[in-house]
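Q: Hi! First time asking for a complex rather than a single chain. Here are the components, and I think there are two in total. Is that enough to go on?
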Amino acid sequence: MARMALRADAAKYFLGYIWWILEPLLFVGVFYVVFDVILDSGRADFLVFLMCGKLAFIWFSKSVNQASNSIAANKGLIGRINVTKTLFPLAVIQEGVYRQLAVFLLLFCFLYFRGYAPHLAWLYLLPVMAVNYLMIVACSYVGACLVCIVRDFSMIISLSMTFLMFTSGVFWDVRALGDPHKTELVLALNPLAFILDAYRQVLLHSTAPDWIHLMQIACGSIVLLVIVVVIMRRSSQYLALRALS
Amino acid sequence: MSAGSGEVMLALEDVSLSYQSRRKSFDHGSHHVLDRVSLKLYEGETLGIIGRNGVGKSTTLRLMAGILAPTSGKVRQRPGKTSSLLTIGLGFRPDLSGRDNAMLAAMLQGATAKQARGYLEEIKEFSELGDSFEERVKTYSSGMMSRLGFTTALKTHVDILLIDEVLSVGDARFREKAEAAMKSRISGDQTVVFVSHMEAQIREICNRAVCLHEGAILAEGDPRDVLAAYREVCY
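A: Yes, that's all I need. Here is the structure of the assembled complex.
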């Protein structure tokens, strides 16, 4: 059942599929102009540095943003059938996965042309992406429930994504803060900053991520996910009432 | 009544439903849709529900379908029986073709991918959409949309059919065809709950009727008596 909805959503976006790549690239372009050309970041590799962080960040922010609104947006369907409410955010997230595959492919090509030859260490990306995905699903489910119950959360979530963009080291380097304690603090407090940094460590320095930290984020996401899914299953009809009223 | 002989398929027991309305300052926030409604549905019967706009007809169907849970009271359904709510218009995904929507609807109503694919040609034929079936629903007129919705609903099989106003749309010819199809299905052992504003339809199709008024049951029993009660609150 879920697969059908996914296929459906992919089909929906097929026409506009050039936007999958164009939109993130435009973001990268603007950030590049502002932080390198105008503000002079002082990094020779700023563009690749920015791309590694920004493209992964967009995956997270866009998926969570859209998935959060998905239950409320599907009230037509919810009023007709008693379905598991996880179906709606999951469909949006899967759509984002397809989009992101294209974006990552582009990133790899770009890195290759900038002299970062594909390395066996790039395989470290697989666990990093998996944990990134888990974070997206967990946050999306929580967001989707909150927005369904009180619509105002939609604003709060989209604002949070903007705040996260500034605080997660998208256009600045957590490792270049000068004070190592500060770096650790940022990485410990903000899982997304850790994930973005892990992408860069793997792609630009062929270094393995901090496995323990990665596992902690994975476990945290899974625990959150299990709790939300149990709640969503139990209160499926309550969510339907909130979506409809 | 001929239909009362079967077993109880579904029962609402003292069911109330209320929700917090958004504009709290107006009515202390609580909106009562249904107030202590008890209702039984017997196997093989066609139960009509009539009432003015906003008295809780659609909500009653949603409770029966398990989409909503009552605030208090119980909804009991015979174990192992499936029910499905058919409504028109809502629920379509405008960016998908009629075919994809029909597929999605059939699968969400419990059909497997293979079964759903089997329904598709029937749906295309009965709905008379022709080539439009492959086009996006966004481009459909409301009549076309209702044809697709009705046909998709008709062709998928469930034990209890909950019908919300689906027969009051479409052009005259299609409506006749739809009514005939619905009647042939109802005359079998299909259990049906049927919501409509059209008195003639209730009188012809249903063997028992209920009139809802202000969240409670105003009259219940023979359709003719119930319709008389309905007319009194209407005028």
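A: The two ends of chain B are 28 Å apart (CA to CA). Let me know if you'd like any chain examined more closely.
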